[in-house]
Structure formats: C-alpha cells, structure tokens
Structure to design on (305 residues):
C-alpha cells in the first residue's frame, strides 16, 4: 500500500449517458501515516433509489486495481459548531467475489457546495482494526485508474430477475448437461450457467426435480439461486449456488458449495450443514456467512458402523 492516502470527492463531469458521473466527493491525506489509497464516489438515482458508489485504489499494492465501494446508511448525532452541516459517509469495500474487506467512515461538512473533511477511519471487518486518516486536504482531479461507472448505478433490483433452464440429452434420451440463463425484465443478461449432470436422469425425473430454485441461502431475506446438478455415487444431492447482494445488485457464485452435500439450511441459526457419506462414516460440516463469504465453522466425523 504505501505512504500517502488520497480520498477524492471531486466534481466530475462525463458525457450525458449511463456512464455519467454525477457530483462526486473527496479529500486526500494520510491513513495511519503509511497506507496509500485513492477513493472516488458519486451519486446516481437508479430504480427507485439514490445510490452512492465508486471505487478505491491502493496504488502501492503489489497488483493495484480498483475495488468497488458502496455507501450504506449510518447516522451520527455528533454536534458541530452552529452553522455547519455535518455528514457521515460509510463506504463498504467489496472484492470481485463479494467479500467485504474494509469499511471507510468519512465525516465531512458541506457549506455552499464545498466539502470539508473533518475526520475519517478505515476498519478491517474481520479483526476490527481501525486506521485513522489525518493531514487531509481536498483533491479535485479524476484519477487515470478510474474504470467504468459501477454496475450498481444502472443495475435493477432483485425482483426484476428471472431464470430459464434447459437440458442436453444423449442418444438414449438421458439428461447430460444443464444450462441456466438469467433475465432482467424479460431481457436475457450475461448470466449463464452450464454444468454436466452427475448421475442418470430421464424425462420422468426431469419433471420431479426442482432444478432451479430461488431460495434465501444467505439468510438476508432476499431470494438467492440454488441449482441442482445431480448426486454422488452415495446418492447425496449436489448443488451450485449464487447469492444476491442487495448493496451491489449482483449475483456471486458460492465456490464452497462444491464441498457441500445434502445441504440443510437453518434460518434461525443462519447456518448451512453438509452431510457427506462414505462406506464407514458420515461427515457433518457446518458453514456460516462471514463478511459476504460462506465459511466452514465446524466439522465432525460420525461412524456408520
């Protein structure tokens, strides 16, 4: 990461299109005196909501790349001197797989359209470690690393999504491959899934199995996506899974589902339990969601003899 922190809240103007950056906000300074980061966020009205989003960038990292930032609501009742309007901007840092790796909190005042930094922090959501921002001044230029406008600025909400699936068959009529496509408001998207099925399935079984179900598997009250892809040689059901993130308005594949068999979802405990069998033993693994990632929290082996 490096020696200088840049946090950029500028007034940026691009062509009037879906790629337009509306009013943006920022400052530059130091984070604990050693970590360099640049941040650009802007506001846009989309599908009924005002969204504040952008990117942060660590220029001194080994492989610097823009990281998605999305603002979430947080209030601060701290009083300021009379005549100053104080605001708190909470920005959550999302990796490409949906994992949350940091949270910025930036307090600033606004007077006649000018933004003035008051204080700021960055928090590690796993360890709780907090780094302070200091020696901050305003910065007004758009950085060269800034990519396209975040997809959340134009993406539809979850209820606009639907899914269709189809199969390939071999010469004897047995199902071989499953294909799933995503649609938004009836229009096909770039969401596409395909998988070779495990096990033997005919036309009768095709009608009995729930191949694609929109279940809430991360317990946030919003339907996700569960895709049945067959059975093991011990007749344990196998699935692929995608979770919907309400803040980013994206589906993310849940890679760890490759390890889960016969998943059992406990909405009260907010856990997912896998039960995998071999000839002699039953392996029971329990998973929980941590910072957007499904993580194994316990495992045990039970003898079947």
């Amino acid at each position: 990461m490096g020696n200088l922190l840049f946090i950029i809240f500028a007034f940026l103007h691009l062509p009037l299109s879906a790629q337009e950056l509306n009013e943006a906000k920022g400052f530059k300074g130091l984070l604990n005196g050693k970590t360099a980061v640049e941040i650009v966020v802007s506001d846009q009205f989309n599908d009924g909501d005002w969204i504040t989003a952008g990117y942060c960038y660590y220029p001194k990292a080994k492989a610097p790349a823009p990281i998605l930032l999305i603002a979430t609501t947080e209030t601060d009742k701290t009083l300021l001197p009379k005549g100053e309007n104080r605001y708190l901007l909470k920005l959550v840092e999302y990796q490409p797989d949906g994992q949350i790796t940091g949270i910025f909190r930036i307090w600033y005042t606004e007077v006649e359209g000018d933004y003035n930094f008051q204080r700021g922090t960055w928090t590690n959501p796993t360890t709780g470690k907090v780094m302070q921002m200091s020696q901050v001044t305003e910065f007004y230029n758009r950085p060269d690393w800034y990519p396209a406008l975040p997809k959340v600025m134009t993406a539809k909400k979850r209820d606009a999504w639907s899914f269709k699936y189809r199969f390939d068959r071999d010469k004897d009529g047995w199902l071989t491959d499953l294909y799933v496509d995503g649609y938004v408001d009836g229009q096909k998207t770039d969401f596409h899934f395909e998988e070779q099925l495990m096990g033997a399935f005919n036309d009768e079984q095709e009608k009995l199995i729930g191949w694609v179900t929109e279940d809430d598997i991360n317990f946030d009250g919003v339907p996700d996506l569960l895709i049945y892809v067959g059975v093991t040689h011990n007749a344990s059901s196998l699935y692929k899974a995608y979770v919907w993130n309400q803040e980013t308005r994206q589906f993310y594949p849940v890679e760890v589902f490759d390890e889960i068999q016969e998943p059992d979802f406990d909405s009260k405990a907010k856990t997912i339990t896998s039960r995998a069998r071999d000839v002699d033993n039953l392996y029971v693994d329990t998973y929980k969601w941590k910072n957007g990632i499904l993580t194994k929290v316990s495992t045990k082996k039970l003898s079947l003899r």
